[in-house]
Predict the structure.
Amino acid sequence: MTKLTQKAIKFDWGEKEENAFQLIKQKLCSAPILALPAGSEDFVVYCDASHKGLGAMLMQREKVMGL
């Protein structure tokens, strides 16, 4: 993707690009697997917001607890 943002770079849609696109589609369309929290562990909250929306994710030990 970073190559495509450079000046004078011609974009050709090939097998590599198609495979990457299909993988991204698959990841975006599959449901996330939520883990059960452990009461003794710390939690981490990730937040993001813009003028169009907001989102948050609760994690523990690098596993998603909730979205």
